[in-house]
C-alpha cells in the first residue's frame, strides 16, 4: 500500500495513503467461515509481498491480522495499516493484537520480521480453519499458549502443514527470516501440492467470495470510480488541515468508513473480547479534550476509487471517534472530479493439471543413544521430478511428545524409486528425556507424515 504523504502538527498527525478498493479478510471470514487452501495461499502471498518490501526497508509491521488484509474484487490482496510499525531491532514495548502476537512480542523483545511471519501464519491458519491458533480467554492464557503450547498444525490441510509448523515455531530463528523468505517457501509448497495453476484458481475462488459482499467495497457507493487529488498542509493553528480538495475527500471517507464499520467484526463476539483486545493492541495520542486514546487521523486516496478513512494505529473496525475540535475551512471552489469505468473480469474455469510426481509412502524409525538419534527414512515415489523431504527433530517429556522443537533439515530425492536414508542428529541437553523425529514430503505422501520418538539414555533416573 503506497504512502503519499505524512504530516505532524501540535494537534495530531495524518497519513495520506493509497485507497484500496477492497474489503477486509475479517469480513470475508465472517461471511464464509473459512477459505479453500488455494484461496488462503493467495491471500497470504499477496499480503506477504507488501510486507516483504517493508522488511527490506527495515520496517516491522507488528500488527498483521485479518482486519489489516484487504481483498480486492479481482481476488488480489494487500496488507494495510502500519500504525504501530517499528524499526527492525528497536524495542518499542509490548504491542500488537494478542491473538496473533509472536512469543517474543509478548516478552517485549526487539521488533523483528520473524514476528510478522508468525502473525501472518496465525492469520493464514484462521483463514484455513475458521478459528485462531490459540483461544485463551484472557491475556495471561494467550501469552502462555503462544509461548509454550504446541503448534496446532493437524487442524490445517495436510499439504500446507509445513508452512504452519515453520511460521508458528516458538523460536524466531526457526521461522523464515522475513516475508520474502516465507513467500519462497509458500510457492514451493503450493506448487508441489496443487500444481502450477494454484494461484490462478485461488484468486478466482477469492474473487468469488468477495463478490458475495459487494456493498462493503468503497466503490459500492457509485457506478464508477472517482479520481480526486488532495494535499495536506500544517497551519499555525491547532490540529492538521488538508488542502481544499482534501476536505471533500475526508467527508466522503467518513460516510464510506461508517458502512465498513457497521458490517465488519473486529476481534470476536465474546463478551469483552473485541474491546479488550483492541485496547491492548494499539494506543495513540488523543486530541485535546478527548476521554480516551484515539487513532491518529488517516486519509486514503488513489487514482481510482473513492477516498476512505482507515485507522493508523489499529485496523480493527470500530466507530470513528467524534472529534473534539473542528478546523476552520475557507470556502473553496468544488474540485474537479473525473469518472472512469473499470470492467469486472469474468472468471473462467481452468482444468487442474495432472501431477507427474507422487509420493506413495514415507516411513521412519528412530534409534537413540545418550544425546544422539539416527532416523532411518524410507520414501517411495512414482512419476518424475524432485521430492523434498523435510526432517524435524523434537524433544519432549514423554514418548510421542513433540513439545520442544530441536532443529529442521531437508533433502531432495528423485521420483520413480524407493529411497532409504539414515539421518543422524545430536539432541540438545536437558530439554526432555525423549527424542523425536517427524518426516514430511513435498508433495505430500499418500500415507501422510511419519514420526517416531524414543527414550534418551542420558535420563537414567527417569523410568521408561
UniProtKB/TrEMBL annotation:
Residues 283-307 have a biased composition (Low complexity). Residues 283-357 are annotated as: Disordered. One of its GO terms (molecular function) is protein serine/threonine kinase activity. Residues 308-334, 344-354 have a biased composition (Pro residues). It comes from the Bacteria. Its EC number is 2.7.11.1. Keywords: ATP-binding, Kinase, Nucleotide-binding, Transferase. Residues 1-189 form the Protein kinase domain. It holds the Pfam family Pkinase. SUPFAM superfamilies: Protein kinase-like (PK-like). This is non-specific serine/threonine protein kinase. It comes from Streptomyces caledonius.
Amino acid at each position: 500500500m503506497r504512502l503519499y504523504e505524512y504530516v505532524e502538527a501540535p494537534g495530531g498527525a495524518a497519513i495520506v495513503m493509497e485507497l484500496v478498493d477492497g474489503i477486509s479478510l475479517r469480513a470475508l471470514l465472517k461471511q464464509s467461515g473459512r477459505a479453500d487452501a488455494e484461496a488462503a495461499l493467495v491471500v497470504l502471498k499477496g499480503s506477504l509481498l507488501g510486507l516483504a518490501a517493508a522488511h527490506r526497508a527495515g520496517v516491522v509491521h507488528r500488527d498483521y491480522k485479518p482486519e489489516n488484509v484487504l481483498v480486492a474484487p479481482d481476488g488480489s490482496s494487500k496488507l494495510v495499516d502500519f500504525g504501530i510499525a517499528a524499526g527492525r531491532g528497536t524495542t518499542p514495548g509490548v504491542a500488537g493484537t494478542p491473538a496473533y502476537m509472536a512469543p517474543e512480542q509478548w516478552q517485549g523483545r526487539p521488533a523483528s520480521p520473524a514476528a510478522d511471519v508468525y502473525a501472518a501464519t496465525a492469520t493464514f491458519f484462521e483463514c484455513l480453519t475458521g478459528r485462531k491458533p490459540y483461544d485463551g480467554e484472557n491475556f495471561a492464557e494467550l501469552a502462555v499458549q503462544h509461548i509454550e503450547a504446541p503448534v496446532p498444525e493437524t487442524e490445517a490441510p495436510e499439504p500446507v502443514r509445513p508452512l504452519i509448523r515453520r511460521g508458528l515455531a516458538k523460536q524466531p530463528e526457526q521461522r523464515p527470516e522475513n516475508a520474502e523468505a516465507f513467500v519462497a517457501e509458500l510457492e514451493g509448497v503450493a506448487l508441489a501440492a496443487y500444481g502450477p495453476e494454484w494461484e490462478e484458481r485461488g484468486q478466482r475462488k477469492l474473487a468469488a467470495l468477495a463478490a458475495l459482499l459487494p456493498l462493503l467495497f468503497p466503490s459500492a457507493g457509485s457506478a464508477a470510480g472517482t479520481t480526486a487529488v488532495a494535499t495536506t498542509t500544517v497551519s499555525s493553528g491547532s490540529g492538521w488541515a488538508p488542502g481544499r480538495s482534501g476536505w471533500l475527500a475526508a467527508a466522503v471517507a467518513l460516510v464510506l468508513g461508517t458502512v465498513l464499520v457497521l458490517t465488519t467484526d473486529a476481534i470476536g463476539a465474546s463478551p469483552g473480547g473485541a474491546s479488550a483486545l483492541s485496547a491492548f493492541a494499539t494506543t495513540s495520542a488523543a486530541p485535546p479534550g478527548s476521554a480516551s486514546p484515539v487513532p491518529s487521523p488517516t486519509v486514503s486516496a488513489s487514482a481510482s476509487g473513492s477516498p476512505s478513512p482507515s485507522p493508523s494505529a489499529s485496523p480493527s473496525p470500530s466507530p470513528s471517534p467524534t472529534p473534539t475540535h473542528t478546523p476552520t475551512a475557507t470556502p473553496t471552489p468544488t474540485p474537479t472530479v473525473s469518472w472512469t469505468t473499470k470492467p469486472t473480469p469474468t472468471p473462467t474455469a481452468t482444468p487442474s493439471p495432472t501431477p507427474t510426481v507422487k509420493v506413495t509412502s514415507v516411513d521412519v524409525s528412530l534409534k537413540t543413544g545418550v544425546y544422539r538419534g539416527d532416523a532411518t527414512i524410507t520414501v517411495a515415489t512414482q512419476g518424475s521430478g524432485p521430492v523434498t523431504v523435510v526432517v524435524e527433530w523434537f524433544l519432549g517429556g514423554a514418548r510421542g511428545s513433540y513439545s520442544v522443537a530441536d532443529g529442521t533439515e531437508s533433502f531432495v530425492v528423485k521420483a520413480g524409486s524407493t529411497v532409504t536414508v539414515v539421518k543422524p542428529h545430536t539432541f540438545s541437553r536437558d530439554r526432555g528425556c525423549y527424542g523425536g523425529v517427524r518426516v514430511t514430503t513435498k508433495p505430500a505422501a499418500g500415507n501422510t507424515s511419519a514420526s517416531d520418538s524414543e527414550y534418551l539414555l542420558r535420563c537414567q533416573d527417569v523410568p521408561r
